[in-house]
Amino acid sequence: MTQDELKTLVGQAALQYVAAGSIIGVGTGSTVDKFIDALAASGIQIKGAVSSSVRSTERMKALGITVFEAAEVESLGVYIDGADEIDHGGHMIKGGGAALTREKIVADLAEQFICIADASKLVDVLGQFPLPVEVIPMAAAQIARRFAALGASATLRAGVVTDNSCHILDVRGLQIKDAKAFESDVNQWPGVVTVGVFARNRASVCLLGTAEGVKTLKFD
User: Fold this and answer.
1) Which listed residue, 54, 93, 145, 165, has the most CB atoms within 10 A of its CB?
2) Contact yes or no for 67/50 (Cβ under 8 A)
3) Do 203 and 83 meet the contact criterion of CB atoms below 8 Å apart?
4) Sheet containing strand 197-198, strands side by side
């Protein structure tokens, strides 16, 4: 199967975690687009969704799905989103679509994070995919120097302004073996809005699209 077909497969598989009458969290990206389309076609009557991006909000509204602001809900049963990388502990790198801060906010409202991804995203150690870090613009050069001191290279993502009017640094040359400690450390650097490591808000379940079908990975 093609990568696009695998994305469609996991998008449909995620429907099993959607409870009728509920409000769900919905992420952003090409795999999530497949989930949104599957949800709209499924006939499952949900109360609505909290979205992590303008892109997903517009797509859901166009398909007749009610979208709530995060401030309007106290909790969500599930948050369904993709990942740029996921390891065997459910820790992820996210932010390829520059929505990492809002994704982390919505994920934090949810009891379960359901990650939908194709098999190419499963890795032993996080870091091969460039790590996105959302930063306050005036701090970008300072934060890049801090990553250089770790032996990594941080470059500004050209022409990108986030939904929060901030910039994205993409960091290459990392091997993130202790994702939780790394996330906690970098999040404390002045000027960092959010680092794209999802360890505190790691996946509960990963629906992985493979040539043999959807493989379900569960993380304790």
Assistant:
1) 93
2) yes
3) yes
4) 85-86, 92-93, 197-198
The DSSP annotation for 83-145 comes to: -SEE-TTS-EE--TTS-HHHHHHHHHHEEEEEEEEEGGGB-SSBTSSPEEEEE-GGGHHHHHH
What pLDDT, on a 0 to 100 scale, did the predictor assign at position 220? Answer: 78
Distance from C-alpha of 22 to C-alpha of 108, rounded to nearest angstrom: 17
Q: 1 pLDDT exceeds 90?
A: no
pLDDT in tens, 94-131: 999 999 999 999 999 999 999 999 999 999 999 999 99
103 is catalytic: yes
Burial 50-60 (b: 16+ CB within 10 A, else e): bbbbebbbebb
Give CA–CA dist 101/94, Å, rounded: 10
Let me know: does 154 contact 147? Beta carbons within 8 Å: yes
pLDDT digits (tens, 9 = 90+) for 116-171: 999 999 999 999 999 999 999 999 999 999 999 999 999 999 999 998 999 999 99
**Cα–Cα distance, 214 to 179 (Å, whole number):** 26
Nearest to 200 by CA among 89, 122, 85, 71: 89
- Other Cβ atoms closer than 10 A to 180: 14
Contact at 8 Å (CB) between 141 and 189? no
Q: In whole angstroms, what is the distance from residue 111 CA to residue 109 CA? A: 7
pLDDT tens profile 187-204: 999 999 999 999 999 999
